[in-house]
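Is this the right way to post structure tokens for a design question? Let me know if I should format differently. Anyway, here goes:
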């Protein structure tokens, strides 16, 4: 596709709620209630592919992903943070982790954030619902997850992302605030 046409299409897509592709950006919400229905393995793999498609500093890709479907383990994970209770009823919980070593360790948490956002967007794209539950940098929560999953010492839990078919629906809040945008022009 010619560059000019592509740009024109992108501009058209900027109109909120319209266009095609990446509509999940304007549709995704945190989903904390799930249907009693399993998530297909194919969808789990698409979510993992989306997460690993994220950008990272120096392309260091510091991530590893635990995918937890065991109900008893999920219940224990839901107790690893005071704000993770609703993970208990999810059919699957992703636990993105980061390695201890890399080219630019100061960017690990930032890299992981990009991966988690991709995970959430892909869930929405696939008709699923998910929520980001903060674990890192809280050392107590990181240790709790480490213990539940018996994660090796050179890996660190970054977040919990419970996921399932949504049992709640609401429109995404429009957070666009023009006053927060500062154009610098000739
Ligand atoms: C770094 C981070 C940590 C979060 N931790 C939690 C959490 O521990 N528990 C939870 O229920 N939601 C958590 N959230 C979800 C936020 O509460 C949610 O994104 C925010 O309220 C905006 O709502 P929305 O995602 O529906 O747009 C977290 C989100 C981020 C980005």
């Amino acid at each position: 596709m010619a560059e000019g046409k592509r740009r024109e299409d992108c501009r058209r897509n900027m109109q909120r709620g319209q266009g095609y592709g990446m509509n999940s950006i304007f549709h995704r919400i945190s989903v904390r209630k799930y249907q009693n229905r399993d998530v297909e393995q194919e969808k789990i793999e698409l979510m993992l592919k989306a997460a690993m498609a994220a950008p990272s500093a120096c392309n260091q890709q510091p991530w590893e992903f635990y995918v937890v479907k065991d109900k008893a383990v999920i219940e224990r994970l839901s107790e690893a943070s005071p704000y993770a209770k609703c993970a208990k009823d999810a059919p699957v919980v992703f636990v993105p982790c980061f390695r201890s070593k890399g080219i630019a360790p100061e960017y690990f948490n930032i890299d992981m954030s990009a991966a988690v956002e991709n995970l959430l967007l892909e869930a929405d794209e696939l008709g699923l619902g998910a929520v980001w539950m903060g674990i890192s940098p809280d050392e107590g929560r990181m240790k709790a997850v480490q213990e539940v999953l018996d994660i090796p010492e050179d890996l660190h839990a970054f977040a919990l992302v419970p996921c399932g078919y949504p049992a709640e629906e609401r429109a995404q809040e429009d957070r666009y605030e023009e006053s927060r945008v500062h154009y610098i022009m000739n």
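Format looks fine. Someone answered above. Worth noting: Confidence is low (pLDDT under 50) at residues 9-21. Residues 29-168 form a domain with the NADH Oxidase fold (CATH 3.40.109.10).
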